[in-house]
Amino acid sequence: MTDVRQESLASLLGGRGGALDASLPPLAFVAGWLLFGHSIGAGAIAAVLCGVVIGIVRFVRGEKPRAVILSVLLVVAAALVALYTGRVEDFFLIQLLSNVASALAWAGSIAVRWPLLGVVVGTLLGQKTRWRRDPALLRAYSVASWAWVGQYVLRVAVFTPLWLDAQVYWLATLRIALSWPLQIACILVSGWLLKRALPADHPGFRHPQTTDLRKADQAAGETGM
């Protein structure tokens, strides 16, 4: 049985490749916008083409078609928003709003005793909801999920004033800085928090110690998570 200290949440969640890919279409958008006389249309075409290329590469890698299609559609939607409003900074609006929604969703999941980190990891490991019947693991996932809330709040705090001030160059630059580097940091921090929050004798997140669900909820409630 694997000890939690030997487990790597980062190895399970990954994230660098997808987050890096997500930062490329905004760069293509700004590059197209600059190269063609501040044309939002040119920037939109460049971003969509970049998104399509990334989608094809992901598909060739064997990733699920649904994920590939969603990735391309998000780029198209961002480009359409910018074209509709005529404001180049609005290309980043969907990403800004998605971070607001993500912060609220993760914080809300903790409040209702369904921390999204547990949902994601439990799904990846095929545990379904067994992790919720482990009071220690439920509490640990609640603690570790705050790292993800912090990640999204940080992005909102940084991007909002830049978007309001139409700082397109900084929006594109910080989109990279706050994509895969922040994603990796978040995964590492949440993994550390998860390990710290679990009792020393717990076998790890791959091995939930199931008990009565009401007792698990009660235990999580007593911790204030």
TrEMBL record:
Q: Is Membrane set as a keyword in this record?
A: yes
- Enumerate the Pfam families for this protein: DUF3159
Asked if the record carries the keyword Aminoacyl-tRNA synthetase, the reply is no
Arranged from A to Z, the UniProt key words for this protein are:
Membrane, Transmembrane, Transmembrane helix
According to the record, the residues making up region (Disordered) are 205-225
Transmembrane spans: 33-60, 67-84, 104-126, 138-163, 169-194
InterPro entries hit by this protein: UCP010219
Q: What is this protein called?
A: Intracellular septation protein A
Source organism (scientific name): Lentzea albidocapillata
